What we know:
mainly beta, Factor Xa Inhibitor, 9% helix
Amino acid sequence: MSAQKGSAFLLKIGDGAQPPAYQTVAGLRTTQMSVNGDTVVVTHKESGGWRELLSGAGTRSVSVSASGIFLGSDAEASVRAHALAGTLADYELSFEDGEKMRGRFLVQRLDYAGDFNGERNYTLQLESSGAVLPA
Length: 135
């Protein structure tokens, strides 16, 4: 197994159609995905002093963080519109090996920053709503 390029880890947003067509959110320099899960403990007297967990139970979620240079793309405008409206959108995470994951996400946070003589940057945080599945 070879190392994969970080530049090939892409975030894409759906166009709202069914099925959605996805457009790359341009300008991203860093992208991070975290899979989170809560556990359900089912330890009982006969567990022998060891904690036992219930497989498949609990709440799972996916968080996506990204940051980059603002380019004014249609995809960036769509992300901003969903952030301002507080609405869910379809997103796709695409990896160099061709693997893709799709799900509905809410823009948890969208920040813009810029220096007088520099580019305009943005960071965003997405939180999943429902299942995030391989595509």
